[in-house]
Specification:
The termini are far apart. The strands form seven sheets. A six-stranded antiparallel beta sheet has the order 8-7-6-11-10-9, with helices on both faces. It is an alpha+beta fold. 46% of the residues lie in helices and 22% in strands. The chain is elongated. A hairpin with a 5-residue loop joins strand 20 (627-636) and strand 21 (642-652). It has six domains: 3-190, PAS domain (Beta-Lactamase, 2-Layer Sandwich); 247-392, GAF domain (Beta-Lactamase, 2-Layer Sandwich), CATH 3.30.450; 412-559, 2-Layer Sandwich (Beta-Lactamase), CATH 3.30.450.40; 562-663, PAS domain (Beta-Lactamase); 747-906, Heat Shock Protein 90 (2-Layer Sandwich); 927-1049, Rossmann fold (3-Layer(aba) Sandwich), CATH 3.40.50.2300. Helix 4 packs antiparallel against helix 5 (250-265), helix 4 runs parallel beside helix 7 (366-411) and helix 7 (366-411) packs parallel to helix 10. Residues 927-1045 form the Response regulatory domain. It catalyses: ATP + protein L-histidine = ADP + protein N-phospho-L-histidine. Residues 210-240 form a coiled coil.
């Protein structure tokens, strides 16, 4: 082939090659540009839709404009606008001339305006009747392409020029082969492979062409890489935004974010450091080379390292050559050559740092900095949105819990339970493990801890007390407002009750404008409590104050009925809930028990009142103040019985009333019994006083008769008459002893007695009857009792005899003994004390008694057998004797069925100490000081003692006796001392005598019972003390003296 023909042929081929290259370049550009524009618009649409929902929904248009303005940084974005359904532009950034909108023309979602070179996206906005308008300019891309094409064309033209000059000579040797190589490379470029190079020797004629070709391919490769990187960055922003919708915790969120960034860009290491309250940066999430070398304990000090510098400056810090940076901190010999730290902010405050490292120098371009700054801002928006959502959830949860807390506490009536429950519920509501919650109550000028709950190792003792003015809690009380100390070290008034306390908040409990206590929360960390916590605490404090006030009010209502408490302390209350019409919503079992209704839907509260007038009055009272306390009324139960009640009720909201109904019916009956007991007690006191006077009289008569008998022979009639006087007085004295027993002053001869043995002795004294059967049911395990056996035996005989007389036609008399613990549920007698008792029951099957007789059964001189010569003192004395023994006696009877007397005597708690008389040597005749305010008794006693050979000194009162004894203490051997005297009683005189001479010997005498416990204790503890009861006989005096001095010495 001729060289000219070859030249033409080769020229044509070169031109064709240039055309193909230009075609492929344009074709690849257009194909990549279409795909890139669509992807970019999709990413922007998703992102902008989310921003519109976030800020436009919150009416924060300015914030939305700030977010959209971030797209100004991209040169290809011509316009971003938000248009409502009427065509009005809500907000826009970009070229204002592009805002001309034709809805008819712009009916497609995406279209290309070839005359302007602009892509236009017209997308509906979620939840808003409007559209999002995005316009992207292709001119920047086309200009780059034109420059590249022009460069190619110029290079090809140069190649053609040189080719024509040298083609003929060197075609076969130096052109064909490179052209073949170029053809292969062009095919690679057509497939999107840009990392190719045309390699020719420097000496080659097409070396410059090859260099230009390689430069062109490099430009295409960089352009492709830049497009891919932008695509990855927008994809990453979209993925982070998506993660923000699925976030469960910030820790989980950042773990995914750092993994996404590293996977997308293949950095050496990506980590997130969270900002601690103390300014340190603590590692929270990491992905890459260092994740196996450092853990969550790894921290940066404030301002230390690249992350610390970024946190300190509040901006992105980029180091593209770490070897030249003094700020760089090596970590475990990791090959870090470039490092970039991006601050993450929340509400303007830095909350963390994203740190990115690379093993390459100059790994981060200015464009990377911009895009990662955008990523940081996106993360900040996600965090703020998550925090807002979390705060809303926390608020809802805490308000629900607070509602439950206050709902429960307001209904609690026990103040101690309110305190103990409140600290636990507050701890639960705040949801902070390492805190302690305390509640203090103001008692006088002190703060007393009433409740404490928490997990601190150090604990304060329950009921810890401090002054009102001390510490944070004292300040809250003083100022009547919440005091929060985020860092207690900075509070000069703080008083640390725990060594580990670092922050503290105190909220006062206010009732009627005055503090009654304080809620105090402490933590070992600073800045623990936020505004939401304080709001919740203040809400709880308000409701807790109401609960405490309600509980105290309730207890004040109960205290106003304290005189009824003994009888009704075990009574349950009827609790009800009704609506405005009086229809029952809920009642407790006590209501059903008291009123007898099981089906509450069929009854109305106001229908239970005995009259419409009372019901109307109750309505008026409750409507005035929505609260009523202790409303006295009469109501009917299901069977029609009239109940005397007190009603307390409070209105809640506008829906229902909660009320308490106290049944006072049994109380009225018990009150009547209490009046009867008071009447008996008064009669007993009168009887005791009469007995005392009689004993003094009998003492004079009995002593005189005995003296007469000592002076006259037995054959003399005067001796006979004196003996009659003595025996008559003795019988009168027995009657007086019964009166003293009734007056609770006659339990003198105390001993330990087996109840069963005593009952057997009683039965021996009751003569057998043909038509009356006596039956015993004696529990062999009953314990011993401490009693005056003679008195208690007489009581049992009197009651048994009454039972026999109540069965004129025959029957059965049953005597039982049992033992057990009796409380006020079993025994409703006024003044009854719960404890262990021996129970003696005497029952007959006789004629019984009616209610009128039962009311007066224990009254002195009351009898139904006056015609038979009965005095009516038997049962009244029995009542006094049993009371004197610390016991109780009750009676129940049914006409025609019989009567049952129940006697309760306390069991013996401990053995009495028995002190034997100390026998001392004494002179045969004694000098005795007699002290009595009755002159004739002093003279009589002096004569009786004179008959025994003793010398007597007399004193008419305690003052005179002490004066005599002081002067003659070494001469006086014995003092006989009356107990009941004016000025000073016998016990006071005895105390003074002991002061004068510690081993003074004393014999007490009295016509009335001394204090039971004092007499028992005194005679048991004092070996030189004896006691004799008036009227006494000569032999009793002699026996008492001998027991003190020894019979062989007198």
């Amino acid at each position: 082939m001729k060289s000219g023909t070859l030249s033409i042929l080769y020229s044509f081929l070169i031109i064709l090659l240039v055309a193909v290259l230009i075609y492929f370049n344009e074709h690849i550009f257009i194909r990549n540009l279409d795909g890139f524009i669509k992807d970019k618009i999709n990413v922007m649409t998703i992102h902008l839709n989310r921003e519109i929902q976030t800020y436009l929904g919150d009416l924060n248009k300015q914030k939305l404009i700030e977010q959209i303005s971030l797209y100004k940084k991209f040169p290809d974005i011509k316009l971003v606008a938000i248009v409502d359904s009427t065509g009005d532009v809500l907000c826009a950034i970009g070229d204002p001339e592009e805002l001309q909108i034709d809805f008819k023309v712009n009916s497609k979602t995406l279209r290309y305006w070839s005359d302007k070179g602009i892509y236009e996206a017209f997308v509906p906005i979620n939840d808003l009747k409007g559209f999002l308008l995005i316009k992207l300019d292709t001119k920047p891309y086309k200009e780059d392409t034109r420059r590249a094409s022009l460069l190619i064309f110029t290079i090809i033209t140069i190649l053609i020029f040189f080719g024509f000059s040298f083609m003929t000579l060197t075609f076969r040797r130096r052109v064909v082969k490179p052209i073949d190589r170029i053809s292969g490379l062009m095919q690679d470029i057509a497939r999107g492979i840009y990392n190719v190079q045309l390699e020719v020797p420097r000496s080659s004629d097409i070396y410059n062409f090859a260099e230009s070709f390689n430069q062109m391919v490099k430009l295409l490769d960089e352009k492709e890489r830049r497009l891919e990187r932008q695509k990855s960055q927008f994809k990453l922003i979209s993925e982070i935004s998506r993660l923000g919708l699925e976030i469960n915790s910030t820790e989980d969120f950042f773990r995914k974010v750092v993994s996404l960034i590293r996977d997308e860009f293949n950095f050496l290491n990506v980590s997130y450091f969270t900002a601690e309250p103390n300014g340190k940066l603590r590692l929270l999430a990491i992905s890459g080379y260092l994740e196996n070398y450092i853990g969550e304990s790894y921290t940066y000090e404030p301002g230390y390292g690249i992350p610390g510098s970024s946190a300190l400056l509040g901006d992105v810090v980029v180091i593209n050559d770490t070897s030249k940076s003094p700020q760089f901190v090596p970590i475990h010999d990791a090959p870090i050559l470039s490092e970039m730290s991006i601050p993450i902010k929340k509400k303007g405050k830095i909350v963390g740092i994203i740190d990115i490292t690379s093993e390459k120098i100059n790994a981060f371009t200015s464009e990377d900095v911009k895009i990662f700054k955008t990523i940081g801002e996106t993360i900040s928006v996600v965090l703020e949105k998550f925090e807002s959502m979390t705060e809303n959830i926390r608020l809802i949860f805490k308000l629900e819990t607070v509602y439950k807390l206050t709902r429960e506490l307001v209904l609690v009536r026990d103040v101690e339970k309110i305190f103990s429950d409140a600290v636990k519920l507050i701890h639960s509501v705040l949801g902070k493990k390492e805190i302690v919650v305390e509640i203090y109550e103001i008692v006088e000028d002190k703060l007393v801890m009433r409740g404490i709950y928490g997990n601190l190792k150090e604990t304060l003792p329950y009921e810890y007390v401090q002054s009102v003015g001390e510490g944070i809690i004292g300040k809250a009380i003083k100022e009547k407002k919440t005091i929060y100390a985020p860092d207690i070290i900075l509070e000069p008034e703080a008083k640390k009750f725990y060594m580990t306390t670092s922050s503290e908040v105190a909220v006062p409990l206010i009732v009627a404008g005055e503090p009654i206590g304080v809620i105090n929360c402490e933590s070992p960390q600073v800045n623990v409590f936020d505004d939401l916590d304080i709001l919740v605490l203040q809400t709880i404090a308000d409701m807790l104050s109401i609960a405490i006030q309600n509980a105290r009010m309730y207890h004040k209502i109960l205290e106003s009925e304290s005189k009824y408490k003994t009888i009704f302390e075990n009574s349950s209350e009827a609790i009800i809930r009704i609506n405005h019409e009086g229809k029952f919503i809920e009642v407790n079992p006590t209501f059903k028990k008291v009123f007898g209704f099981d089906d509450i839907e069929s009854i109305n509260f106001y229908q239970l009142f005995v009259s419409d007038e009372i019901a109307d009055e109750f309505r008026r009272e409750i409507s005035k103040s929505n609260f009523i306390a202790n409303f006295d009324a009469q109501m009917k139960n299901k069977s029609g019985e009239i109940l005397n009640v007190k009603i307390s009720m409070r209105k809640f909201d506008d829906f229902y009333y909660d009320g308490v109904i106290v049944d006072l019916t049994e109380y009225m009956k018990a009150l009547e019994k209490l009046h009867e007991a008071d009447k008996l007690r008064g009669l007993a006191q009168i009887a005791g006083g009469i007995a005392h006077e009689f004993n003094n009289i009998f003492t004079g008569i009995l002593g005189s008769a005995q003296l007469i008998k000592t002076k006259i022979p037995k054959e003399d009639k005067i001796y006979y008459w004196a003996d009659i006087i003595e025996r008559s007085v003795s019988k009168g004295a027995d009657l007086v002893r019964k009166l003293i027993g009734y007056a609770r002053g006659g339990k003198i001869k105390v001993s330990v007695v087996n109840p069963n043995e005593m009952i057997i002795d009683v039965l021996k004294k009751i003569p057998p009857l043909e038509n009356v059967k006596i039956k015993t049911e004696l529990d062999p395990s009953v314990p011993e009792i401490e009693c005056d056996r003679e008195q208690l035996t007489q009581v049992l005989i009197d009651i048994a005899q009454n039972g026999i007389e109540a069965m004129p036609n025959g029957g059965t008399l049953t005597i039982r003994t049992t033992q057990g613990y009796y409380d006020k549920d079993k025994i409703t007698e006024p003044g009854f004390n719960p404890g262990e008792y021996v129970h003696i029951s005497i029952s007959d099957t006789g004629i019984g008694m009616n209610d009128d007789i039962l009311k007066h059964i224990f009254e002195p001189f009351f009898t139904t057998k006056r015609a038979l010569g009965k005095s009516g003192l038997g049962l009244s004395m029995a009542y006094g004797v049993i009371k004197n023994h610390g016991g109780f006696i009750t009676v129940s009877s049914t006409l025609g069925q019989g009567t049952s007397f129940n006697i309760f005597i306390p069991v013996l708690r401990k053995e009495r100490k028995t002190i034997n008389a100390q026998l001392k040597t004494s002179k045969s005749k004694l000098k005795i000081l007699v002290v009595d305010d009755e002159e004739f008794l002093r003279i009589l006693l002096a004569d009786l003692l004179g008959e025994l050979g003793h010398e007597v000194i007399q004193a008419e009162n305690g003052v005179e006796a002490l004066k005599i004894y002081k002067n003659m203490k070494d001469e006086i051997d014995l003092v006989i001392l009356d107990i009941i005297m004016p000025f000073m009683d016998g016990f006071d005189v005895f105390k003074e005598l002991k002061q004068i001479k510690s081993d003074v010997k004393v014999i007490f005498t009295s016509g009335f019972s001394a204090d039971e416990k004092m007499m028992i204790n005194l005679t048991a503890m004092e070996p030189n003390v004896r006691y004799i009861q008036k009227p006494y006989q000569l032999n009793e005096i002699e026996t008492a003296i001998k027991s003190l001095f020894g019979s062989s010495q007198i």
